Amino acid sequence: MRIGYLASHYPAVSHTFVLREVEALRRLGVEVETFSIHRAPASELLSEADRGAAATTFAVLPLRFADLVGAHVAAFARRPARYLRTLVRALRLASPGLRGRLWGLFYFAEAVTVWREAERRQVRHLHAQFADAATDVALLVASFGGKGWGWSMAIHGPVEFYDVRLNRLAEKMRRARFTQAISHFGRSQLMTIADEDRWDRIHVVRCGIDPVAFSSDGPRQGGGLPHLLCVGRLVHLKGQSLLIEALAELRQRGADARLTLVGDGPKRPQLEQLGRRLGVADRVHFAGAIGQDAIRDVYRSADLFCLPSLAEGLPVVLMEAMAFELPVVSTRIMGIPELVEEGRTGLLVTPGRLDELTDALERLIADPDLGARLGRAGREKVLEEFDVDRSARQLREIFASALS
């Protein structure tokens, strides 16, 4: 079995789960070639695995003009009628307006370049990640390739559900061989968009982690004030501002703690300012983006994990924290309750409710035995349902069926 994985950015700091899935499929004997619309900058290659993946991934952009012209000349010379039909399809699929048509032309230009490289690598099926440029390009590659070519897509959420018309999810699900959803919640949202005769082609395949790599074995590095940890891009929808407010409220209640925020993003200056305004800047450490080679030590240093997101798919960082037997607090939204079961594998709060968030954190700080019990149950949950090798076996069966 030989397939291609296509993403807008691969490898990417925030999409390590895609790299893990690729590696797990390869361990099962699936030949996976990787393609990316954009080349990953060296500054984002934070681990040895990232650097290895980048070295073997074909990136469309930045693109040399000679390569672009060569790909299109070769494609037109080989299949002129199909070339023109695919160009027309790209323009029809584009969003209305001049800007939409222009982006349609960009996707067509990129698709022909990906097609040429896929031909060279003997790939006839592309599995695209997220309903962005990657799925547009994959659809056009298969359209130009014709008989024997196909594509599928993985929808993670929540961004893809913000504007299903702009993302053309219904059209893409009709044309894809299958759609992968990472949660039952995500599948239910796709079912509201897809025709009923396509429902059986929407498969729930979890993102996963390697439970051996993310193991609680080894000494904790804690000590001193209770250490709260949050891992994620510093963007509005992750809710880190609520966590800083909760930290200030905990101090007022006499449950002083410290917080480490791992990740980077456009909201960092506002979060730093918020910490200073609330008088907890000395309790908040901004660690920046950390690669997979070093993140394990960060988990081992923490006492509990919190992800107060306002919108999510099914966060892999929660799986990682639970695998380390950290008690977790998160929000009762989207796919999260499929992982964090209230009172059994973690604590869930209403999104946006600072009082509930603070109460949950205070409860865990005050009751280490509860945290230990939740942590043990959390790891068991991850081992049972979120093992990347288990997900890869499921995906291999789906690919085999789709390609037969």
Summarize the entry for a quick read.
This protein has a 7-stranded parallel sheet, with helices on both faces. Strands 10-9-8-11-12-13 form a 6-stranded parallel sheet, sandwiched between helices.
Average residue pLDDT: 94
**Class inferred from helices and paired strands:** alpha/beta
How many beta-strand segments? Answer: 13
H and E order: EHEHEHHHEHEHHEHEEHEHEHEHEEHHH
Query: Helicity level, as a percent range?
Result: 40-55%
Helical stretch tally: 16
- In spatial order, strands of the major sheet run 3-2-1-4-5-6-7
Question: How would you characterize the largest beta sheet?
Answer: 7 strands, parallel
Gyration radius (Cα, Å) is 22 Å
Distance between the termini: 10 Å
Overall, the morphology is elongated
Strand content: 15-25%
> Low-confidence stretches at least 5 residues in length (pLDDT < 50)?
none
Labels describing this entry:
alpha/beta, 16 helices, 7-stranded parallel β-sheet, 6-stranded parallel β-sheet, 404 residues, elongated, 13 strands
Describe the protein:
The protein has 404 residues and is α/β, with parallel strands linked by helices. It is 49% helix and 16% strand. It has 16 helices and 13 strands. The protein has helices at 16-27, 48-56, 65-78, 80-93, 97-120, 133-145, 164-167, 169-175, 184-193, 240-252, 268-278, 292-301, 316-323, 354-366, 368-385, 388-403; strands at 2-9, 31-38, 58-61, 125-129, 150-155, 179-181, 202-204, 227-231, 258-262, 284-288, 304-307, 328-331, 347-349. Helix 1 crosses helix 16 and helix 13 (316-323) crosses helix 15.
